[in-house]
Amino acid sequence: MDARRSQSGRSATPSILSADVKIEGDVVSEGELHVSGSIKGDVVAKKLILAEGGSITGTVEADVAVVAGNLAGRLTATSVTLAATAHVVADIVHVSLLIEQGAVFEGFSRRVDSIETAAEAPVTQPRLSAPALVESA
What we know:
mainly beta; disordered N terminus; 11 strands; eleven-stranded parallel beta sheet; 50% strand; 137 residues; single chain; globular
């Protein structure tokens, strides 16, 4: 079976949200999603490509995420690439993370062995101060 075909047998063409599209609400795609416009809401896709000039504010879940635009919120993906033009203010949970020179990333990064086990594991908060010294007697 061709990898570009969906379960219904039709060709799996990427869904494209062009630069003039603005969505306030959630977007779900079982395939590839290209975003050049803006989304204020949660996004779920098998593969997400956030183009330069595109923006997402919300929670993103994908198998593969390539970010070249603006992302604010939370990103969970097996493979994450932050392109040189990316501006990300988000916490990222990933198996693989690539940050190209020039990309802006503000937030926490958490590497996991698999995304499925990440959902089950408790989230630990980073230590914001040094541990207290214990004086021995």
